Amino acid sequence: MREIDGYDYFQCPTCEMLFIDSFVLNEIDGGSNIRKYDAEYWQMELPDAKERAYGVALARTAEVIYYTRIPIERFIDVGAGPGYFLDAISRHLPSHSGRFYGVELFPPPVEHRTKHQNYMVGSLKDVPFSFDSGLCMEVIEHLSPRMLRSLLEEIAHKSRRGACYIFNTGLPEYVLREDPNYLDPKRRGHVISWSVSAVRALCAGLEFDVFPIRGKTWAFILERRLNDGVSAPDFTKDIRERVWSALPENLELLMDRTMGSVLKILGHHTILAFS
User: What count of other Cβ atoms lies within 10 Å of the Cβ of residue 175?
Assistant: First the structure.
């Protein structure tokens, strides 16, 4: 496709994902990352992480809560970074803050992390309970196919049937038409732009369905099947139609005695804002 910072990028003719040279991906799997996720990286990333936490992450959270078809007891931020999302939830949904969790494998220094009691350092597979819904913000563009498959396996192991997750990441259409600088191996460590088809292929055997979100070139839905895990849904149906049949108990999660219904309104409008 093109060269970025001295690295060749390609596009798969079958699934359309964009990816850095497979030789480099093999090196990443061997532990040789182009971008080290060290103190220098976090010094650059922390302002953006805070902006996402108090903005787009709240919108994505409200959206996926509308889509989730089972009652939500626990919500997880996968790859939570410094955990600022939990701070944003504590501010906007203080009465429900205890039902939100975050997990991060490569956190910033302690002084730059949230103090929220549900922030966990480590791997998702080590968390001692399961989840019903969640989000994964700007994470998987850093991961090789082997790494993403491993993460999907962890999510499957920690998900109840019907658990629903929203992934925020630049899809190929977004990169090619809206932000060609999204692929950024050296500064931000973005090595892949995942397509819905590619993620579906990696989900083989995990009883996950992957849904596009019409009008959004930067997000998709991952849902563990409610049924026997065999029959797939009709992917031609628009997942946004779930906005009209959201579970009342989940919508209650988006309302707070102090802050009111702002996140419920945000979720409703962000679902219908793109066509």
Answer: 22
**Considering just the CA atoms, what is the radius of gyration of the chain in Å?**
18
The rounded mean pLDDT for the chain is 93
Token pair 């494998």 is found at 105
State pTM to two decimals. 0.94
Helix (H, G, I), strand (E, B) or coil at 188: coil
**Whole-number Å distance between alpha carbons of 265 and 254:** 9
Question: What sign has the CA pseudo-torsion 182, 187, 189, 191?
Answer: positive
For residue 5, the 8-state DSSP code is: T
Task: Sketch out the chain's domains with CATH numbers.
Answer: 2-272 (3.40.50.150)
Chain-centre distance for alpha carbon 180: 21
Q: Is there a contact between 132 and 72 (Cβ–Cβ < 8 Å)?
A: yes
State mean pLDDT over 109-135: 95
State the DSSP H helix or E strand holding residue 114, giving kind and residue range, or none if neither: none
Place of tokens 């919500």: 75
On whether the CB atoms of residues 18 and 193 are closer than 8 A, the answer is yes
Q: Closest by alpha carbon to 201, among 64, 14, 36?
A: 14
Q: CA 200 to CA 221: how far, in whole Å?
A: 11
Angstrom distance (rounded) from CA 157 to CA 150: 11
Task: Measure Cα distances from 1 to 115, 141, 185 in Å.
Answer: 43, 17, 15
Nearest Cα residue to 55 out of 138, 118, 115: 138
Least confident of 59-63, 70-74, 186-190: 186-190
The count of C-alpha atoms lying within 13 angstroms of the C-alpha of 96, restricted to the half-sphere facing its C-beta, is 23
Cβ(218)–Cβ(225) under 8 Å?
no
Q: For tokens 């959270």, what's the residue?
A: 61
